[in-house]
Amino acid sequence: MTGDDQREQRPSRRNVLTSAGGLLALAGSASGGLAAERPTSGSSAGAAFWGTHQAGITTPQQSYTYFMAFDLIATKQTEVVDLLRSWTSTASRLTSGQTAEPLGTNVDAPAADSGEALSLAPAQLTVTFGFGAGLFSKDGVDRYGVAARRPEALIDLQRFNGDQLVPEASGGDLSVQACANDPQIAFHAVRQLAARAYGIADVRWAQSGFLSKPADGETPRNLMGFKDGTHRPAAVEKVVWVGAEGPDWMRGGSYLVVRRIRMALEHWDRTNVGFQEQTMGRHKYSGAPLGLTHENEPLRLDRNDKDGNPVIPENAHVRLANAATNDGAELLRRGYSYNDGVNFTAERWPPWRQGMEYDAGLFFLAYQRDPRTGFVPIFEKMAKFDMLNQFATHVGGGLFACPPGMRAGEFVGQRLFVST
Ligand code: HEM
What we know:
This protein has helices spanning about 5, 15-20, 75-95, 135, 185-195, 235-240, 265-270, 275-280, 315-320, 375-385, 415; strands at about 65-70, 125-130, 175-180, 200-210, 255-265, 330-335, 335-345, 355-370, 390-400. By secondary structure, it is of the alpha+beta class. The strands form two sheets. Strands 5, 6, 7, 8 and 9 form a five-stranded antiparallel beta sheet that branches. Helix 3 runs antiparallel to helix 5. The relative contact order is 0.18. The model is unreliable at about 1-35 (pLDDT under 50). Bound molecules: protoporphyrin IX containing FE.
């Protein structure tokens, strides 16, 4: 897909007014209320929701995400199933540009939809659901009768070197990743889903993210100023989708590793560009592998300089991340930048400055068919040796099993609860 394919097409005003789901303002109705549906028309009607796989995994990346993790507080399996049913139907409506539920005209009751997306197009909205280990058992208790069906690949991730994960940005029994080309649409979607979880699941943590795409279709840059997203696995489908090796209810699904990675931007900005490039293993402005000219040239890790040293250093990020140095391990990155203001930080490097620093960085999202052959081997080594570690601290994260897609009428994860 090219950048052009990803570009959202907005409905014309005429379409909005005449489409079946167009805005029907009932000004002056007896209740003074508004019976409204959101504008939808052809190509603006969000990404496809029903299908073999959940959308939002290999879907071309939208410009914004809003991610939320939940703790289940339900005591019965039926409550969880009801929630997943409700989430599925709500998400299918939202991605096609409708309100979460049809709006009524009764002003003496809370609205069925919070309303901030009325008259906005769905902006390629995708909603992707995931299940954390706590859905299967928590504190040794099989709360919902599915403990025996926990996939082996849904491991408890070990603590990696340098990890500073805090509970308020980690874990969760359920996850929702909403992505759209409009931040208000992404937030709106999660907000409607969270509202339907009251009494069944509590909000645990949330993260918003953005990815600004250059108009010329160039690779977007992260907050370190480097092109990020150049390399993509050649066989994406093989890397991402669970196959016959997984339990039947996960086939066609994927495992999501999320990490909230704070960047030491003040430190980075006072670092020479040459050292930044050695750290990444690529040139900053062109994005080309060190010593080469074009962004999309292969890394050619075996190149040495005249002194016999590797052109791309042994502990450069791209070398440590590359499949060739990880026994072929690969994953599909789908990360976003985040920017949550400033807070007090004690730097971990000389001169150990203390003060208000940016709480900003990379909200790393990566999909793979099994984290044991994806994220874990790659990051285990990276966490120990990557030069980038002096500029990056993992402060939150989680692992979620994202079930396969659904046929219309099914709910997400149905085959986990109902054997076919
Ligand atoms: C703040 C943290 C990070 C930053 C700023 C960052 C940045 C980058 C950049 C600039 C590239 C080169 C361009 C590209 O191919 O996209 C890259 C490549 C890559 N990164 Fe990261 N990254 C970070 C964390 C991670 C983590 C935690 C992982 C996985 C464990 C990871 C996996 C990869 C992979 C697989 C590649 C492609 C390497 C190849 O060329 O084969 N990155 N990253």
